[in-house]
Amino acid sequence: RTIGDRIGEAKASGNLGNTLKILGQFDEAVVCCQRHLDISQEQGDKVGEARALYNIGNVYHAKGKHLSWNTAQDPGHLPQEVKETLQKASEYYERNLSLVKELGDRAAQGRAYGNLGNTQYLLGNFSEAIAFHKERLAIAKEFGDKAAERRAYSNLGNAHIFLGRFDISAEYYKKTLQLSRQLKDQAVEAQACYSLGNTYTLLQDYERAIEYHLKHLVIAQELGDR
């Protein structure tokens, strides 16, 4: 501020916002991120503007998740305050998405699609969530980003469960399992086995369900995860 560096001030405000978000001070975080947004727009800094929109989305997303921790309800069955917070997150991600499309930033589009999928899932809009996660998946494949691809498969599996499409969920979870083994991530592998066990229970294929739950158990024991 002293040297009149507006872009520097914007970035510093954004960093403050992100730090306050991590500290759980969501309302103060929004103020700082909004300042980042205002200055970026005033300076015609499109990249800064996109980043600020994404960060504000993240703050509302984190706040929504934080508020819903106290309510152990299924996606879609949320208190009004949580719903409104997640809707705000979604609106900022949408604005970010249209701007990064304009800028031709595919990696940023991937992040926006993933977060839009997650917020729509929490809001109980499962078909919308699926559409966004499919976009996320396509971009992850484009970049050869195996970890993002794995997350997308997992999220697609979760959303199809709520639409009662258990067989489709099972296929997505199998892809999750395959990738978690490729990535040598045992905790995620265990989670995928657990999801498959539950899905096969829903499909009333109990033999297979047992098989996957046993695999989950073995990894949990290996990891010493009580």
TrEMBL record:
<dbReference type="GO" id="GO:0005092">
    <property type="term" value="F:GDP-dissociation inhibitor activity"/>
</dbReference>
<dbReference type="InterPro" id="IPR019734">
    <property type="entry name" value="TPR_rpt"/>
</dbReference>
<dbReference type="Pfam" id="PF13424">
    <property type="entry name" value="TPR_12"/>
</dbReference>
<dbReference type="InterPro" id="IPR011990">
    <property type="entry name" value="TPR-like_helical_dom_sf"/>
</dbReference>
<dbReference type="InterPro" id="IPR052386">
    <property type="entry name" value="GPSM"/>
</dbReference>
<feature type="repeat" description="TPR">
    <location>
        <begin position="150"/>
        <end position="183"/>
    </location>
</feature>
<dbReference type="GO" id="GO:0005886">
    <property type="term" value="C:plasma membrane"/>
</dbReference>
<keyword id="KW-0963">Cytoplasm</keyword>
<keyword id="KW-1003">Cell membrane</keyword>
<dbReference type="GO" id="GO:0005938">
    <property type="term" value="C:cell cortex"/>
</dbReference>
<dbReference type="GO" id="GO:0000132">
    <property type="term" value="P:establishment of mitotic spindle orientation"/>
</dbReference>
<keyword id="KW-0677">Repeat</keyword>
<keyword id="KW-0597">Phosphoprotein</keyword>
<comment type="similarity">
    <text>Belongs to the GPSM family.</text>
</comment>
<keyword id="KW-0802">TPR repeat</keyword>
<dbReference type="GO" id="GO:0001965">
    <property type="term" value="F:G-protein alpha-subunit binding"/>
</dbReference>
<keyword id="KW-0472">Membrane</keyword>
<protein>
    <submittedName>
        <fullName>GPSM1 protein</fullName>
    </submittedName>
</protein>
